[in-house]
Specification:
Length: 172
């Protein structure tokens, strides 16, 4: 059985990612639940930092936070690393606070990896990798940004996640 693929359609282009349910079962199930429900439709990549990452999946146009399900267990101790073009769950400072927001690493970010079961060492759970659309990810990360609604590194022009869909392997 192959790993599921998702298509993240943005106004900048298409990103296709392979998900890793064997290493991050709860995280992948959570992401797919949000995707299948249409939650991600018209959310933003609301944070873009060159040579670091792009973050999205929780705010709508106007920088309005969407209501989410309960946070999930952080599976960052799964052995996967925050390498270039991996997908990881965004969270608050508390280790087990991730819900809908995710990010795409646009470079190796080893400092985000799990090191210990402590608040400081828990890290960020990797649950997939971009297999097509790396250029789109880089372009988004290089967007001109500023401050908006109390957030920094917000693209000046909205980067819209138009949809996130599960795809068949032969349709990428």
């Amino acid at each position: 059985m192959s790993n599921p693929l998702v298509r993240i359609l943005t106004n900048y282009g298409v990103i296709v990612a392979e998900l890793y349910p064997e290493q991050a079962p709860a995280t992948v199930a959570n992401f797919l639940r949000y995707a299948k429900s249409g939650f991600y439709t018209n959310t933003l990549f609301h944070r873009a930092i060159p040579n670091f990452m792009i973050q999205g999946g929780g705010l709508e146009r106007g920088m309005y936070l969407k209501a989410t399900e309960e946070p999930i267990l952080n599976e960052a101790a799964n052995g996967l690393k925050n390498k270039k073009f991996t997908l990881s769950m965004a969270r608050l400072p508390a280790p087990h606070s991730a819900s809908s927001q995710f990010f795409i690493n646009v470079c190796d970010n080893d400092f985000l990896d799990y090191t210990a079961p402590t608040d400081e060492g828990f890290g960020y759970c990797v649950f997939g990798k971009v297999i097509n659309g790396t250029d789109v990810s880089i372009t988004i990360s290089e967007a001109a940004t500023g401050e908006r609604s109390g957030h920094s590194d917000v693209p000046e022009q909205d980067v819209v996640i138009e949809s996130v869909d599960l795809v068949e392997e032969d349709s990428t």
